[in-house]
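Run DUF4339 domain-containing protein through structure prediction, thanks.
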Amino acid sequence: MDDNNFYSIDRLVEFGLCTAVARQMVESMNAALSQQAMPGYNKQVCAPGFWVVFDGKSAGPFDEAELLKLIMTARVTRASYVWKPGMAQWQTVENTPEVLRLVALTPPPFTS
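Sure, done. The structure for DUF4339 domain-containing protein is below.
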């Protein structure tokens, strides 16, 4: 039989062994990498707070929980102006989806 032929049994066995070794190397490297701790991976990124205009003066920053309290006490309404880092200018709550969704979570005033 011709040993230079790719389809000879020796070449096929060699190819199979090389494939098995390569697969094992990839699996062991993936296992080693998945066990390594990545610096900063589990750190919670603090969302920047919102600033709110009260009586013509800005106040803040307020986190989401504080902002929700202000909305529930009606100190912040849809017409209030808010700003957070990254915004070009002050906008009303009506035009700020992150805060508007908090307004949607609050129940309407009760009237009997």
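Strands lie at 50-54, 57-62, 81-83, 91-92.
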